[in-house]
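Lecture notes, unit on protein representations.

Consider one protein chain, 143 amino acids long.
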Amino acid sequence: MPIIIADIMRTRVVTVEMDDRLTVAKEIFEQANFHHLLVVDEYKLEGVLSERDLLRAISPNLGSSAETSKDLETLQKRVHQVMTRNPVTVAPHVSLDAATHTLLEHNIGCLPVLDNGDLVGIVTWKDLLRAYCEHNEVNESEC
């Protein structure tokens, strides 16, 4: 039986608002074990903010002895200024293979899962790889 996204997606999704400051996203990434935040406006998906996007937008001097007030100002940017707009999404009924091809085709790290326009989950490249290994009974040490 083919694996579908609904079988492997994470339904506990952490979101931020478009006008949240990057300080909020930075704090979430520092405390969490994931690398993508979904950006919403009135519960509607508007974008994706990756940890990599955040790191590109803020000063590399933050937290160092070279930090200046100008470096701290980079944290005051709004999420919508840095996020990826119109993210590629997937439906819950899509197959593991199709989702994997979509990730590779667009060179992205996650797919928000939408069901009739409603945000219901997220799936990352790690989720897809884990499902592939489990489905093919590959030992974790081999994956």
